Every structure is written in structure tokens, then in C-alpha cells.
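Sample intake sheet
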Amino acid sequence: MRDLLLQCAGVAGIAVALIHGVLGETKVFAKATITPESLRTLIRLVWQAGTVAWIGGGVLLLAAPMLGSDSARHWIVATIVAIYGFAALANAWWSRGRGFGWKALAGVVALAVAGY
């Protein structure tokens, strides 16, 4: 059961990351006016760096049960909980608790902790 919860956290983490990337491109940057253009590109790349990092975290959560190491499982879960937890808190603060993003991120954290 622990392994299944951890793998569900991984799938949810990847889904949240993909939604983050798509919404950034279709909603945020489609409307944003950022000059100079090189700065716009930089900000877009930094936004997507978060997307790639969250996908990597989801992959690690998916792989953790197959590693056969309690130490690896511990550090993967601890690291991902810190990353997604910080993102959830930042998103909740920014949206004043009204957004969906922080709830999705907190769900990944809850699943990861439950699967630990």
C-alpha cells in the first residue's frame, strides 16, 4: 500500500507539473507584456525550469519503491515534500488561499508522506 501511495504521488506530481507548464504558456505568458524580448524568454525558461523539476520529482516518487533502499526512499520523500511543500505554501500565499494550485501541490505532499 505504501508503494502505491508513493506512486500515486508521483503521477499526481507529474500531472501538476504539466498543468503548471501548459497554464504558464497559455494563460500567463499569452497575456504578459514583458520587455525586452530577451527578458521575456528568460522568465519563460525559468518558469518552465520549475515544470521540469516537478516532473523529475514525480519520476523519483514513481521510482522510489523499486529502488529497494529505505535510505533512498527517505531522502526522495523528504526532498520532494520540501520542494512541493514550499511551492504549495507560496502558491497559497500568492492566491490568498483561493487558487487550485496549492491544493494540488499539497495533495502530492500528503500522498508522499502517506507513502513514506
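Comment: The chain has a mean pLDDT of 92. Residues 1-115 form one domain.
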